[in-house]
Specification:
Order of helices and strands: EHEEHEH
Number of strands: 4
Number of helices: 3
CATH architecture: 3-Layer(aba) Sandwich
Strand order of the largest sheet: 1-4-2-3
CATH topology: GIY-YIG endonuclease
Length: about 90
């Protein structure tokens, strides 16, 4: 599946594909993950924009997945491994 990295602002988020479920990471300038989440097909841009102003970051990286279940499993692995600062721990 495809992946893409854009600036964490409205214009950057507006360039993200919306046709498949994704796992996304909001990253700092140094590349550290502040937040990891999942967005359903058709709601990718809207879901990521909900974090603007709430979670600091300079870029957002997405990876398209084949299904929402696949995306949720990958999200859980990423959170367990990297423990992003703004994710609820123990998820």
């Amino acid at each position: 599946m495809g992946s893409k990295k854009v600036d964490f602002n409205r214009s950057g988020i507006g360039r993200l594909p919306d046709n498949k479920p994704v796992v996304y990471k909001i990253e700092t300038e140094g590349g550290r993950t502040n937040y990891t989440g999942v967005a359903k097909r058709g709601r990718v841009q809207e879901r990521i924009q909900e974090h603007l102003g709430n979670i600091p970051g300079s870029s957002v990286r997405i990876e398209q997945m084949g299904s929402i279940q696949e995306a949720q499993h990958k999200e859980a692995r990423i959170i367990k491994r990297s423990q992003p600062k703004y994710n609820k721990q123990g998820k």
